[in-house]
Amino acid sequence: MVPQDEARVSVHANALAYGAGTFEGIRAWWNAEHEELYLLEAAAHYARLERSARILGLRLPVPAAALVRLTAQLLRRNDVRSDAYVRPLLIQHGEVLTVRMHDIDTRLSIAVTPTPGDYIDPDGVRCMVSSWRRTPDSCTPNRAKVTGSYSGPSLAKTEALDHGFDEAIMLTVDGHVAEATTSNLFLRFGDEWVTPPGTDDILEGITRAQVMVLLEEATGKAAVQRRIQRSELYTCDEALLCGTAAIVVPVVEVDGRRVGDGAPGASTLLLGTTLRAIARRQDARHPEWTTPVYGEGVPA
């Protein structure tokens, strides 16, 4: 472990020019009553990091289970006792000019920082459909969380803000709904929830999987994974975005059209409250989603 100021890479690092690497974002949630910090879905995040590395032809130097233990140690070493954000990053740090994914030294880092407030307004966001399309899997592997794949979402986010919106929704190259810039999307029609399938160029989010579980528990019906047309964004009864940073947030408007009655959806607000409570173990459901950092059940 090194101080933040010593955690540096060369300006000649291959990853700096070409985005050759993969990363994750993991939340840690503080419960003052328990005097405990809980990592949310750390094992799932590191399993995805391992899959992303395999897709890119990189080797994760430490097994996923060991990375959960190392992350807990890092948080204890920093005596973190507030909500925090953990950023594991595997990059090609070798000083190699050539564009390639082999025979270049890699480096794995894990950094921790305080969670900087709400990533996006939890009370409701206004979205626009972006002119920037989601990169197809045939160009960039969308099942890997690739560092270099975020230029498109970054452009879409800036476009949305420049036009007075809070967030952008990106379509596939053939015009179907994919996802927001860093969040997955769910729509409700009556009593049915739908979400784009993994084959529509989305990153299959870990929060997305949690939302699917919670929706089925609440309604008795599984969310349907199917292709979604743009016009369905304008006719749905409720819409939400979900992701590690966003958690769960209601969509109240798309392209100037109200979603439902224009108020945050009751189901969405309940989902957000429930997931936050589970993350802090204030709700007894799904303890398997959380890992304590200090107390009982701490990774050895």
From TrEMBL:
* UniProt KW Transferase keyword: yes
Molecular-function GO term, any one:
transaminase activity
Q: Could you tell me which InterPro entries the record lists for this protein?
A: Aminotrans_IV, Aminotransferase-like, BCAT-like_C, BCAT-like_N, Class-IV_PLP-Dep_Aminotrnsfr
Coiled-coil stretches are: none
What keywords would UniProt list here? Aminotransferase, Transferase
**Entry similarity comment:** Belongs to the class-IV pyridoxal-phosphate-dependent aminotransferase family.
Name-wise, this protein is Aminotransferase class IV
